[in-house]
Each structure stands twice: as C-alpha cells, then as structure tokens.
Design goal:
Strand content: 35-45%
Low-confidence stretches: 182-190
Oligomer: single chain
Helix content: 10-25%
Radius of gyration: 20 Å
Shape: elongated
C-alpha cells in the first residue's frame, strides 16, 4: 500500500514555550509539501473535588485571551517531575489544597501537529496546604457543582476545548454511575 513519505524534521523556531519543526512530505502522487509540528512540554490538568463533590474551577486573567476565564488548575511538568507530582504541585499553587487521593483520569496523546502529552488527574480528600507561586494574575477558586459545570460548558464559559471535553467525559462517567436502569415506566421524553 502506498503512503506519504516524510523527510527529516528540522527545527525552524525555538521559543520559550514551543519548538517548531518542519519536514518535506511526498504524497502518493509525487507532489511535495512542507508540514510542521509544534513541540511543547508535557502538561497536567486537575479535576479537584471538594467535600461536597464540587469541582474547583479557577477564575483567572489569561494574557492570550485578554480576559478572565474559568478553567481547571493546569500547568507544565517541570524537569525531573512525574505527571502526578506536577499535578499535586500545580493544585497546591493554584488552589491552596493538597489532595490525599489523586488518580490518573485520562491521557491526551500528541496529535499530528502538536507534540505534547497532557495528563488529567482527579484529586479528592483535599487539605489546606498553601504554596505561594508566582502567577500571571490573582486566581479566584470557584467550587462548582457538576451539573453547573455542564451548563457552563454548554454556554461556552469554560476555557479551552480540551478542558471542556475532559469535563464532559467526567460528567457523563459520573452520570452513568449514578443513573438508574432505564425502563419503560421511568422513561420520560422532554
């Protein structure tokens, strides 16, 4: 079976966040084109649940968007850290809580154009544990019920498509776990 052949990757730009590389690709019909990929350090995101099972959303100013946004605690994995260690550190820096329990929820693998692995954790049994970090702006933590998070996603109030997708996966996983078996008696159509 014929397929695209790819030449060697060459660095064309290196910034503080991204490295951009380009390669020449030859298609099955022998045309060539340049393709690019960006490489970024691996990152984490944390779905932190308080005692009332509310998700801790952070409300903070994001320079790129030039506005305040709702998001999950996130950050970059530092050199020498495991994803789990980074998740605990970022959670403490952004919320002032340290989890007694933390588990991996999902891994977002690199894509064709973005070479980055993103780890999502669920953190529970939170204990106050303040670490002061240099943040771009003040962060306000907003404990939010899961149904309200779902509503915020539908209203496009949560920052980032990947975060929204993660929260929807979490929402539906919890919805399935707590739903009753559907029968003809309790089925309602709205």
């Amino acid at each position: 079976m014929k397929h695209v052949t790819l030449g060697p990757w060459k660095k064309v730009f290196e910034g503080t966040t991204y490295i951009i590389e380009a390669a020449r690709a030859t298609t099955v019909d022998k045309t060539t084109k340049t393709i690019e990929r960006a490489t970024k350090a691996s990152s984490i995101e944390v779905i932190a649940l308080d005692k009332q099972k509310r998700i801790l959303l952070s409300y903070e100013y994001k320079i790129q968007q030039k506005k305040y946004v709702l998001k999950l605690p996130t950050g970059t994995i530092q050199f020498g850290e495991t994803p789990k260690q980074a998740a605990i550190r970022e959670l403490m820096e952004e919320t002032g809580y340290k989890p007694s329990n933390i588990r991996l929820f999902r891994i977002v693998a690199p894509t064709t154009s973005l070479n980055q692995t993103h780890y999502v954790f669920i953190a529970t049994n939170l204990k106050p544990h303040k670490i002061y970090a240099e943040e771009e702006s003040e962060i306000k933590i907003i404990p939010t019920a899961l149904n309200k998070v779902y509503s915020l996603i539908k209203q496009d109030k949560i920052c980032g498509g990947e975060t929204s997708y993660t929260l929807l996966k979490f929402y539906w996983a919890n919805k399935k776990r707590h739903s009753k078996k559907i029968t003809k008696k309790n089925l309602t159509i709205e």
